[in-house]
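Quick note —
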Amino acid sequence: MTIKKKDSINNEHKRLETITHWHPKSPFAEAYRTLRTSIHFSSSGQPLQALLITSAGPSEGKSTTLANLAISMAQAGGRVLVVDADLRKPSQHKIFGALNGAGLTNWLVEGTPLDEVIQETGVPGLWILPCGPIPPNPSELLGSRRMEELLKETRARFDTVLFDSPPVVAVTDATVLAPRMDGVVLVIRAKVARIDMTREAKELLEKTGARLIGVVLNATHLPADDYYYYYYGEKRRRTV
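Predicted structure written out below.
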C-alpha cells in the first residue's frame, strides 16, 4: 500500500491537541489509554473495528478526543486510520498537520484511489483520511453506497478505523453514519454540554439502532494532588 507522506505534527498548538503523542507519560495520556482499554473491554466478544466519535453539540472536544484515542491505539501496536467524516467543519487535518486538498469527498464523488488521499501523520502506525473539499450534500454522501465500500476497504487495511462526525443534534450526518459503525462514543464536555441536548443525542442515536458503547466526560478538573497520585498509579487513603 503506497500512502503519501506529509509533514508530522510539530507546532505547539498541535502538541497540545495531540498530548498523547508528545507527552505519553502525562496523566492526560494515561486517561486516553484508559479510554482505549474501556473500549476494548466493552466489545463483549464482538469486534469494534469501526468506531464513530461524536458529541451532542459543538465545542465539546470530540475531535481532540478522537485524535488522542487514535494515537493511543497506534501506540499499542495497531494500524489505525482516522477518517474525518465531518464534511461541514473538518478539523482532523489541522490537528495532525495534514493537507486537505484531497480526501474523503474525492474518494466518494470522484473515485480517487484511497492510496492517493490517505496520509501519514508522523505517529507510527497512524494514518489520516482528511475530509477534502467540503461538499454541498454531506448527509447524502455519508449515506451513499460508496461509504459502505469505504468501510469495507478500510476494514481490510486497518485494525481500527475512527470516524469524526458533526455533532448529533445539529445535523443528521452522525445518525446516518452511526448504524454502520461497530460502536459509537459520545463526548460530553463538563460545564458546556446541556443535559437536554445530551439526552436528545442519546435518543437520536438509539433510534437509528446504533450501538452506543459509552460516554466520555471531557474537560473535568482534578485537584493537583490527585493528578500526582493518578500519574504514579498510587492509591491514597483519605482520612476524615
